[in-house]
Amino acid sequence: xxAMLLAGGQxxxxxxxxxxxxxxxxxxxxxxxxxxxxxxxxxxxxxxTVGILTQYQPLRLNAHIGIGIPWDLxxxxxxxxxxxxxxxxxxxxxxxxxxxxxYQNIEYIESYNPDYVLILSGDHIYxxxxxxxxxxxxxxNADLTIATMPVPWEEAxxxxxxxxxxxxxxxxxxxxxxxxxxNLASMGIYIFSWPVLxxxxxxxxxxxxxxxGKHIIPYVKEKxxxxxxxxxxxxxxxxxxxxxxxxxxxxxxxxxxxFNLYEEYWKIYTKSDNIKPQYLGPEAEVxxxxxxxxxxxxxxxxxxxxxxxxxxxxxxVVRDSIIMANVTIGKGSVLDKCIIxxxxxxxxxxxxxxxxxxxxxxxxxxxxxxxxxIGENSVIPDGVRIGKNTAIKGxxxxxxxxxxxxPSGGYIIKEGEEL
Length: 419
Known about the structure:
Layout: E1 2-6, E2 27-28, E3 32-33, H1 36-44, E4 49-53, H2 59-65, E5 79-83, E6 87-88, E7 91-92, H3 98-103, H4 106-110, E8 116-121, E9 124-126, H5 130-139, E10 144-150, E11 160-164, E12 170-175, E13 184-193, H6 194-203, H7 212-222, E14 227-231, E15 236-238, H8 242-251, E16 279-280, E17 285-287, E18 290-291, E19 296-297, E20 300-302, E21 305-306, E22 311-312, E23 317-319, E24 322-323, E25 328-329, E26 334-336, E27 338-340, E28 345-346, E29 351-354, E30 372-374, E31 379-380, E32 385-387, E33 390-393, E34 405-406, E35 411-413
Parallel strand pairs: 1-4, 1-8, 4-5, 10-14, 16-19, 17-20, 18-21, 19-22, 20-23, 21-24, 22-25, 23-26, 24-27, 25-28, 26-29, 27-30, 28-31, 29-32, 30-33, 32-34, 33-35
Antiparallel strand pairs: 2-3, 6-7, 8-13, 9-15, 10-13, 11-12, 11-13
């Protein structure tokens, strides 16, 4: 079995966090990137041939994966391959859908002549043994096995939904129905017997925006092929919104975390730079937080996740926040429920996350949580107050803050940083 990992999505619901980076490359849990989780699942499951399909802003993702050394995927045969859209004798095309992306790399798959192909999304947080799922696929003599899990009924319409019989065979499949008849949701993880997938991809190659949920699965089902649901009941999180991304990070610092990063038998691997150790100053106070390498803490950190190289200056307070790598937080600043992307500077005496919640004036679909979200390489000047449900991207100056404040629901996107 080889794996094809879909990692080309923008992740637009993460707002300014994905302005310059694909969602699978966004930092998670301090030292990791989101893509580390499905990649680590592959090598822990014995899947050692992985094609990673990239499209949107692939530079940082390519640099992070490299030749796959952290995941033991630097191999002469198999290993990891970065697969971006390319030109052929018939012309060139961007990937226009999840299945279209696989179709455009059909020659890569055929070069390994696999019996089975595992399709994965590069933007979910979970641990799964794909070998167990493959054993189930074989035992059922299935043509397609879909990993599923029960979701709350009120959320069911966001997913592809399966109805199964007593043997686990899928009798109905609906993609994001308005009135769901099931709450057994597809996780976007599929095992296909290769001849079945190959035939479906070729048959539907001219389908605009060809997608697994909308096109491939209904086609395979209509043909009468055997489709089964593999039910998964452990931790799985789609971190596709700012709220779910923040929540999943905060769950890591629970006293008994539901998702454990420290299990020896199922390690999460990542690219690790050689960074100096953490330093806690004489007045530093850290409670229930993840602090990565290279951090210097002189103030107070509570219930937060800090990436590598973060500096929290004297008198500064960080609560319930995600601070990505190489962020500097100035003296006396107070941060509540913030997501601060890489290489950002927060000036001295600032207050972030103040006041009452207000509806976003930028995008109500993306910004609908009481979070302060600041994109990478931004600068916040000294002494400003920033309300809840706000977004900032770019190097800002005092003149950008009337009366020294950005009210709740407001945003500042500097020229050249348009979304």
